[in-house]
Amino acid sequence: MSATLIDGKAIAADLRAKVAAAASRLARDHGLVPGLAVVLVGEDPASAVYVRNKGKATVEAGLASFEHKLAATTSQAELLALVSRLNADPAVHGILVQLPLPPQIDAQAVIEAIDPAKDVDGFHPVNAGRLSAGLPALVPCTPVGCVILAKTVRPQLAGCEAVVVGRSNIVGKPVAQLLLAENCTVTIAHSKTRDLPGVCWRADILVAAVGRPEMIRGDWIKPGAIVIDVGINRVEAGEGKTKLVGDVAFAEAAAVAGAITPVPGGVGPMTIACLLANTLKAASMQAGLPAPAV
Ligand code: GUN
């Protein structure tokens, strides 16, 4: 392996410590404790783990955590009623409804019911639109984490060729917007892209967010590129065991890349750290205070 390993776990711990310090200043100077409400509908085990980890990290950073666990049979009207109560609750500055939602619930309707000022996921069309217009916004956490990680290797991204593989509203599109705001030349590739290996090979910064285990091979990567792997895929590891792999074939890619994020321990830990930073930002904005620099 010749690539530098980008230690998302350590970088996320540093960001969480900065959020905690800023939160304690907010409490001391303004009596304000940012509050994050996380809503989980149903018993999906992976979602339950994420929600538990979010709650733990929220409390550790000195923020208030409100967890709402609803039955898998919850109706859309019941969930919308809860969102409406959280929108009106002055102790709640950020609202996150864990996705995916059960099939009887229209996720987009729920996202659009969240007050954009409390939308710490940055999924509301108002925040998506503000991001694409270059206006201040609450920005989705995983994409922010990707850019922070890339900038630890190369603080000035201006002029870089960035290729984002994947066009979801949660990662692909917003990370492309953030890279554009950093003055990268951005290509968004997807399942219909012709010559995907050739397109990836152009990248100085390659962001893989397709959700297909180890799809991106080592010989798709330009020597020296920064590779940010958003994928978290559970695959068979033999003898009845499973393991987590990214969207990039790690060992092959690490032999040619300049820097690469591991899975696990790369982008994943950044998502929660950025969620805490967004909650701090949302609380400050709602109180008419400047967003703390973290
Ligand atoms: N499910 C997986 N990742 C996320 C996320 O970042 N936000 C929400 N709301 N649900 C998720």
From TrEMBL:
PROSITE patterns: THF_DHG_CYH_1, THF_DHG_CYH_2. The lineage of its organism: Bacteria, Pseudomonadati, Pseudomonadota, Alphaproteobacteria, Hyphomicrobiales. This is Bifunctional protein FolD. Residues 6-121 form the Tetrahydrofolate dehydrogenase/cyclohydrolase catalytic domain. It catalyses: (6R)-5,10-methylene-5,6,7,8-tetrahydrofolate + NADP(+) = (6R)-5,10-methenyltetrahydrofolate + NADPH; (6R)-5,10-methenyltetrahydrofolate + H2O = (6R)-10-formyltetrahydrofolate + H(+). The keyword Membrane does not apply. Gene3D superfamilies: Leucine Dehydrogenase, chain A, domain 1, NAD(P)-binding Rossmann-like Domain. Pathway: One-carbon metabolism; tetrahydrofolate interconversion. Keywords: Amino-acid biosynthesis, Histidine biosynthesis, Hydrolase, Methionine biosynthesis, Multifunctional enzyme, NADP, One-carbon metabolism, Oxidoreductase, Purine biosynthesis. GO terms for cellular component: cytosol. Homodimer.
